[in-house]
Amino acid sequence: MVEGTYYIETYGCQMNEHDSEKMSALLERMGLTAVSSPERAEVIVINTCSIREKAEHKVYSALGKLKPLKAKNPRMVTIVSGCVAQQEKEGLLKKAGYLDAVLGTHCIDELPELVEQIKKTGERIARTAFSKDVKSLHVTAHGRGRSPVCSYVTIMQGCSNFCSYCVVPFTRGPEQSRPFQEILDEVSALTQKGIREITLLGQNVNAYGNSHDMHISFAHLLEKLHKVQGLNRIRFTTSHPRDFHEDLISAIADLDSVCEHVHLPLQAGSDRILKAMRRGYTLDYYLGKVAKLRSRIPKIAITSDIIVGFPGETEDDFLQTFEALQQIRFDQIFSFKYSPRPGTGASSLPGQVPEEAKTSRLAEVQTLQDQITQHYHKLAEGTEEEVLIEGIRIKTGQPFGRTRTNKIVNLESSQDISAGETVKAKIIRGLKHSMIGRKIS
Ligand code: SAH
Ligand code: SF4
Ligand code: F3S
Prior knowledge:
The chain is of the alpha/beta class. The chain folds into three domains: 5-127, Methylthiotransferase, N-terminal domain (Rossmann fold, 3-Layer(aba) Sandwich); 135-365, tm_1862 like domain (pyruvate-formate lyase- activating enzyme, Alpha-Beta Horseshoe), CATH 3.80.30.20; 384-439, CATH 2.40.50.140. The protein is built from 13 helices and 19 strands. It has helices spanning 14-29, 53-72, 82-88, 91-95, 111-121, 168-172, 180-192, 218-226, 246-254, 271-276, 283-296, 315-328, 355-379, and strands at residues 5-10, 33-34, 43-48, 77-81, 101-103, 125-127, 150-154, 156-157, 176-177, 197-201, 233-237, 261-263, 301-308, 332-337, 384-392, 399-402, 408-411, 422-430, 435-439. The strands form five sheets. It has a six-stranded parallel sheet, sandwiched between helices. The N and C termini lie far apart (48 Å). The structure holds S-adenosyl-L-homocysteine (SAH), iron/sulfur cluster and FE3-S4 cluster. FE3-S4 cluster binds next to helix 1, helix 3 and helix 6.
């Protein structure tokens, strides 16, 4: 056991957030305690993202802040993990003399041993090998998460899709599924600790089981997890439209614990652009999936990711994206300007779209979506929703949680409501990003 403190700073997606939770669990098992500011930490991990240029810039400015800290306290152990670490490998050690280690996305399980070795020898180390059986896929976070009630559970690692704009297949390696029994054991242990909602994580969860000839599909996995005692809600992200089949629609419709929400990134509304993105579907195909989902599960919330300004995107292509958003009316979207990523196919395509055009297209998409989202929230006024309480707002004392469709509800007062309870609430006001509710049972 080592005495001491640690601090982890996290960038990027839910996989990265969850990787940080796993690293916390590993460091705490060594005897380290979390602190809330890097100045007081003896071990610092910066868990990085490189999905867009802007994300990567943020990481480099965070790294810059380590330099004076390390100068002040040379015994501090400084580690970079995540997607930038995987991409840059030992090159990062050369670039930043104040870094002790680079930890790749397949090597999280090696963190404790890495810290020990650095403390003992003062060596500078890069661990970035990819492996066929990713050990870090088996590491669990033991319920360390954003709330005492909800937890992420990894079911897959990596991605083999190679969408032409995306770095993830390079930074996370090929798609691998986690053994079913391990997932079941983790979920059972979490519910015994009081977790009521899990979010199954993977870049393409509906391809679960494909990579290892596991004879179990994602829909089957949901069926098995549905039977875990004490688990009220199952969510999952992200689904790829190409692999979104009837059996999964049935699982959402038929299994009570599977929430009525799918995040199904469309990316673009023009077939020409979808093809250049290598997404493997057309707009019509996608509309077919949405229609099926909505006819089988009328309450379903559908959210999406949209990229504007992909190379070669004309005004007309963009209009098709805009019209698709008007037609589909997603509950919410995450929208981004296309950002060229080194080593990806799209970065060398002709017809890169000027920055100003990307900026104005993004603004148009976001204005439209804000109206749509707010409209849904207004429509909900007067309806009853099941809200799983995740905690109490520190400033206002309001209990808050989410509906089954993943919408945030702040309740009016804290009258004997605590985290982990499922309450029926009447929606009394729909706002831009959330709703206000009143407990009715
Ligand atoms: N596996 C998920 C997405 C992971 S990345 C899926 O396929 O849906 C999250 C989102 O970031 C993507 O859906 C995409 O919209 C966006 N994104 C990825 N690479 C990007 C790039 N180079 N520029 C802009 N947005 C990008
Ligand atoms: Fe990236 Fe495409 Fe894989 Fe999603 S499916 S992680 S966008 S390559
Ligand atoms: Fe970023 Fe890596 Fe996630 S690039 S979005 S942290 S998979």
